[in-house]
Amino acid sequence: MSHTEPLWLFWITYLKRGTVHHKAFRKFLRADLASAGKTLSDIEMNEEKLHVLFVQCCKKAALMWCEYIEERHGDYAHYMKLAEEELAQGGLTFADIGKDLESLEKFKRVSTK
Fold this sequence. Notes:
The chain is elongated, with a radius of gyration of 17 Å. The termini are far apart. Helix 1 (7-17) runs antiparallel to helix 2 (22-35) and helix 3 packs antiparallel against helix 4 (76-90). It is mainly α. The chain has helices spanning 7-17, 22-35, 47-70, 76-90, 101-111.
């Protein structure tokens, strides 16, 4: 993306790719659209499509935090809390991201030794 493209395009591109920064990027998207005098419909987007992107981002972020747990990158409780928050915000479950809470809990014992 070149520096001459509008900022809202940057935010929507990253939301479509999936990002853990989805809450901030969604806020920035709205602000930059307003500054440009545009609406979601001007960029072929609507609240429903934006919500779908939000849920996809929550799913991707929760999966990333679970992978951190599995790869033992640090504090189990911290990453589990982040995963649970993303799942809750997206209305998702561990099963929705292909994870089993019971199998993740085995890393709790490993990381707290």
